[in-house]
Amino acid sequence: MKQFAEWLSTTFLSVFIQNHNSWAIPTIQSIHIVGIALVLGSVFMIDLRILGWAGTDQTLRQTTSRFGPWLTGALCLLLVTGVLMVIGEPVRELVTFSFWLKMLLVAVGTLIAVVFRITLRKREQQWEETLVTRRSTKLLAILTFLVWACIIILGRLIAYDHIWGSWSPATKS
Amino acid sequence: MDIGAFLKWLEASGLAARIRESLFLFPLLESTHVIGLALVFGTILIIDLRLLGLASTQRPFQRMASDILKWTWAAFAMTAVTGALMFITNAPVYYHNFFFRTKMLLLVLTGINMLVFELTAGRTIHGWDQAPSAPPAGKAVAALSLVMWIGIIFMGRLIGFTTSRAAVAPPPAAGVNFEDFLQGTPNSSGGTSTTPPPNK
User: Fold this and answer.
1) What is the pLDDT of residue B7?
2) Residue B60 has pLDDT above 60, yes or no
3) Reported pTM
4) A72 and chain B: CB distance < 8 Å anywhere?
5) Could you give the CA distance from residue A2 to residue B20 in angstroms, rounded to a whole number?
6) How far, in Å, CA of A94 to CA of A4, rounded?
7) Which of A62, A145, B101, B184 is deepest in the core (most CB within 10 A)?
8) Mean pLDDT throughout B156-166?
9) Closest by Cβ to A30, choosing from B38, B154, B174
């Protein structure tokens, strides 16, 4: 991985970002944060609806069709800006424990969203009438929010990977 | 007490020292700040798009506002507390930082913007509550709000690139372990301040 990261840092796009890093990196990171806000905001609104703490004048289907496309779009924006950050600073991103744990949780969070949308489409009535009132569903809503919150924390910890001590590949030179 | 002395006093406080000396507190404050601001911007965007007539146009505005804005304020409180705690660790540097000042100015302007809304479109709210969008004054407030909040996010990120972290966090020694976190932070004897990296 270290070799790959070092090779990536010699590619044209990477060199370009490195040469303009005074504005390129902060700009890409800021757009990434805007994307994070769209994802967390969308997940938050859907979870609040499931918990019955907001949006109860809307059906579950109405809520997901309002926020689902924003979630998908924002995830694409995060993927693009995220890939640009990896290309711009490959060693800083790829040679960290935080980054890979974050990627694992992103996979988990995305999987939950996909499964939720598919089952909601297939068994809409059951979701609206019974599933949404179940305690386990409400617990899953809270857990889902926590997964995305942990993703944000891990994203910030990429800059502080040494806190993982011996778990961080960055501390092994 | 003049502002310079006050900033120095904040920086010298026990709380600020505690945050600086910890390996974990500053990154966790930053993360919590990001979670808070994501909820602030995410929820404000929902309201602003409704005012502009671009989304949720079928829902009565007041119902949405009472549903959502309490969460916005809770999240804002979270960012204010975490922001203040980060500020005191290096108060004089942040205070003189251009991006920090611009961010604070923008925050004040979003407050004024909110006030303008209350004095204009907010007064006739019963007239357009069910309409797909707010009157022109409400739309202008919403558009300005979005621009300013995106600006606040950019300024916030730039602060991290233009200020050195005051923390005396030791350089990543191979001996530091995650397990140390559970037993408290490794002791970093405050005095020797090496040039710390910016919070990129």
Assistant:
1) 96
2) yes
3) 0.89
4) no
5) 31
6) 9
7) A145
8) 84
9) B154
Q: A58 at the B interface (CB within 8 A)?
A: yes
Q: Residue B42: pLDDT above 80?
A: yes
- C-alpha dihedral (A132, A136, A137, A143), degrees to nearest 10: 150
Q: What is the pLDDT of residue A165?
A: 85
Give me the pLDDT at residue B197, please: 59
Nearest CA in chain A to B38: A37
Count of beta carbons in the 10 Å neighbourhood of residue B112: 10
Q: Does B197 reside within a domain? A: no
Residue B180 lies in a domain: no
Q: Does A101 touch chain B (CB under 8 A)?
A: no
Give domain status of residue B198, yes or no. Answer: no
Q: Does A159 touch chain B (CB under 8 A)?
A: yes
Mean pLDDT of A12-26: 90
Cα–Cα distance list, A51 to A38, A134, A145 (Å): 20, 10, 12
User: Which residues on A lie below 8 Å from B46 (Cβ)?
Assistant: 41, 45
SS3 B132: coil
For the stretch B8-22, pLDDT in tens is: 999 999 999 999 999
Nearest to A43 by CA among A81, A75, A80: A75
Q: Is 60 exceeded by the pLDDT of residue B74?
A: yes
Residue range(s) defining the domain that contains residue B125: 3-170
Q: What whole-number distance in Å separates Cα of residue A96 and Cα of residue A159? A: 9
Q: Give the one of A26, A55, A58 whose C-beta lies nearest to B161's C-beta.
A: A26
Mark out chain B residues that contact chain A at CB-CB < 8 A: 23-24, 27-28, 30-31, 34-35, 37-43, 45-46, 55-56, 59, 63, 67-68, 71, 150, 153-154, 156-158, 161, 172-181, 199-200
Categorise residue B135: left if φ over 0, alpha if ψ from -120 to 50, beta otherwise: beta
The mean predicted confidence, pLDDT, of chain B is 87
Q: pLDDT tens digits, residue range A142-158?
A: 999 999 999 999 999 99
